[in-house]
Amino acid sequence: MFDVATRPLPSSARGGMASVVPFDWRLTLPTAPSDYPWTDFGSPTGAPQQFVEKLVTYALELEDTLATPIILSLFTDARASLDDMLPANETNRRGWVGDEFMASSATDQRDDWGTLLWLYYTGKVTDDVLGMVEFTCKEGLRWLIRAGIASRVDVTALWTGEGLDRLAVRPQIYKPNQVTPVYDVLWGTSIRRFGQ
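Above: the chain's sequence. Below: its structure in token form.
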């Protein structure tokens, strides 16, 4: 059993903002062991038996880090449009069917799930692959700006690994009125670089 603890962050952790948007969970420090009485109704005699156990209580606490939304935004498959070239032998345009129902009217900006990174999982490497990967990642993270969570999103894509054969993506998320990114992680992907 987990209790959900939604403790407010100190104003210094919030950057002076009046409210925060919680994204991630973490376990809080345990409490001192305490007695937890319980009744066993399945004893062989048929009579309920009373027990008391000493247990340590943990709780989940909300954090305002960006780890979960970045992972979901970058590594969930977005739906490819009819203009996108699918990988060889691929006919499924993927994506989440719920995206079709996200906008409440024709004038609303829709924030679709995921990116088109999956389009680059296979195939030959061309000079513009890194640029296309950076573009699709920025598009997948643009909702952070529209929601007011970030003021700027920068993405760098590069080949990494021993033979420079793995694609890595480095998103940098800046909050309003901050000059250093609040999120700066180099994500290695499963995308392999094939021969030229």
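The two ends are 54 Å apart (CA to CA).
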